[in-house]
Amino acid sequence: MVSEFSYARRVEFADTDAAGVAHFASFFRYMEEAEHAFYRSLGSSAYRLEEDRVEGMPRVSASCEYLSPVRYDDELAVHLLVREKTPKAIGYEVRFERTGGPEPVTVARGTMKVVHVTRGHGALQWTVTELPAALLEGIEAAPRE
Amino acid sequence: MVSEFSYARRVEFADTDAAGVAHFASFFRYMEEAEHAFYRSLGSSAYRLEEDRVEGMPRVSASCEYLSPVRYDDELAVHLLVREKTPKAIGYEVRFERTGGPEPVTVARGTMKVVHVTRGHGALQWTVTELPAALLEGIEAAPRE
Amino acid sequence: MVSEFSYARRVEFADTDAAGVAHFASFFRYMEEAEHAFYRSLGSSAYRLEEDRVEGMPRVSASCEYLSPVRYDDELAVHLLVREKTPKAIGYEVRFERTGGPEPVTVARGTMKVVHVTRGHGALQWTVTELPAALLEGIEAAPRE
Amino acid sequence: MVSEFSYARRVEFADTDAAGVAHFASFFRYMEEAEHAFYRSLGSSAYRLEEDRVEGMPRVSASCEYLSPVRYDDELAVHLLVREKTPKAIGYEVRFERTGGPEPVTVARGTMKVVHVTRGHGALQWTVTELPAALLEGIEAAPRE
After folding, report:
1. Is a pLDDT exceeding 90 seen at residue A142?
2. Which residues in chain C are contacts of D23 at CB distance < 8 A?
3. What is the layout of strands, in order, in the sheet containing B53-56?
4. CA C68 – CA C58 distance, rounded (Å)
5. 3-state helix, strand, coil in chain C (%, to 5)
6. Which of C1, C53, C138, D110 could disulfide-link to D64, CB 3.0 to 4.6 Å?
7. What distance in Å separates the CA atoms of residue D138 and residue D82, rounded to the nearest whole number?
């Protein structure tokens, strides 16, 4: 059972804005990429087209606090920590570090809560359903110190 | 029958990059927004979920030439001209103008070719199909001067 | 003095994801667009290139709770409520409504805190500075009921 | 002297749209990421903040032909081929391959022409200038067969 995952990501030019830094919404895409890489590392996927249904993992909430700007070409480490785990949902704490300098610097902190959902093909309504086995059995909440 | 459409769009902050100008990929989103507004003006839509199928209008090709950079808050007019029309496809010429100054300035030119496609729910394969009636009957290619 | 602003925005195709709904990060771009339109309505701007300096309004934090998905072509109203106002910062509550149906439906709620910053051209470091006069004098926090 | 470069990129969820495939504008971001990784591999960078100036490499034109859709989690190889090289500009041919299957499949083809530009800090006007030495000396156009 794991409760942590780290994902390396460079700030691409398209992620920046006219202020010369990564646009604040880019951090939410980085969070999601890290989360999806986490599931992939466990042999699972955040989005699955099956014969008779679609399964996904939408966000119920997301937040970010920006501590220090990051710029084009900066190397980031996105650290996920599982703070909450139920059969149908996972809550994350996220820490963004700028790496590549002499010391890593925490540049942002966030949270993200996702649920697992299923719908039939062509249906509009999603139903909250149990996490796929690989995540159910592979992920646990980190112990609170 | 119409063969022209104009769409007004402001350059939003999230569209810019660290060079202080609208990112080159933003122009492709502007083109598509203009195209979709064109179909909406004709009572149609670029993407439709029906009971038994999904209909969409993907691009077969797209191009853009950048003549002059545009910046945050600039007002643009995106002019579409229908250059080609078949029962299943539409080819556009696109001209981007910066408005809001004393004189409009052409800042970019592009092209875009779209086809109409249909697939059953849950199917992966799309089939090229006839345009919806509103577009079939409402749009014609501009005469070549 | 105003403490509320509403901004209309359609869900564009590029804002959606493979789950068939607006991607969660799109809501953060919508928030910012609404905020920037708010400043524009007061004769100001979120980002200004002056002779000797650049002024901007980066986010210190942002959050969003997703209550109901929105889809391509849905019409949204983004309602900003000023919850906090100091000489150098503004805190917002944001409510997203799907309009265009028989009744507006609240589909998401968020928060956003922005500060005003200045830097010389070519400098990397931003300094937190007083809001432009138009915002300083034009915006006030909403009374708490 | 090199005239080719390949870049591996996964289709992220935020890159997809409601049609269930990578949005057409995503391919332009992939192109640029590949190009920037190319310069990085040569010890250079597409965007540089110097003491007294900013140097960048904006696109003069870009195009893409879409042959086959790609989906969330698909692995892509973006192949750049230098078709044209002058002291101030580089022209690319781009080929996108879906890898990860039994055989790689070409899913899109594009072109991109970039120039090297410089401006003083705080200036709005860019001047077309010579490529940085690492690119000037490291890149050559591929021989035409």
Report:
1. yes
2. 13-14
3. B47-49, B53-56, B117-120, B127-128
4. 28
5. 15, 45, 35
6. D110
7. 12
How many percent of chain D have pLDDT more than 70? Answer: 100
Tens digit of pLDDT for each residue in B16-33?
A: 999 999 999 999 999 999
For residues D138 and B136, give the distance between their C-alpha atoms in angstroms, rounded to a whole number: 52
By three-state DSSP, how is residue B131 classified?
coil
Nearest Cα residue in chain C from A60: C66
Quote the pLDDT of residue D102.
92
pTM for this structure?
0.97
Residue C123's pLDDT band (cuts 50, 70, 90): confident
- Rounded Cα–Cα distance for residues B38 and B6 (Å): 8
- AA letter at C104: P
Q: D131, D116 in Cβ contact below 8 A?
A: yes
Give residue A32's pLDDT band: very low, low, confident or very high (50, 70, 90): very high
What is the DSSP annotation of chain D?
Answer: -B-EEEEEEE--GGGB-TTSSB-TTHHHHHHHHHHHHHHHHTT--SEEE-SSEEEE--EEEEEEEE-S---TT-EEEEEEEEEEEETTEEEEEEEEEEESSSS-EEEEEEEEEEE-EEEETT----EE-PPPHHHHHHB-PPPP-
Whole-number Å distance between alpha carbons of B46 and B30: 15
| SS3 of A74-127 | CEEEEEEEEEEEECCEEEEEEEEEEECCCCCEEEEEEEEEEECEEEECCCCCCE
- The answer to whether D88 faces chain C, any CB pair under 8 Å, is no
Contact D88, D130 (CB under 8 A): yes
- State the residue for tokens 């989360």: A35
Token couple for A118? 């299923």
**Residue owning tokens 């545009």:** B70
Structural element, H or E, at residue B56: strand B53-56
In the stretch 113-142 of chain D, residues with CB closer than 8 A to chain C read 121-122, 124
Q: Are C118 and C127 in contact, with CB atoms under 8 Å apart?
A: yes
Residue with tokens 């203009």: B34
Distance from CA of A142 to the nearest CA of C (A): 23
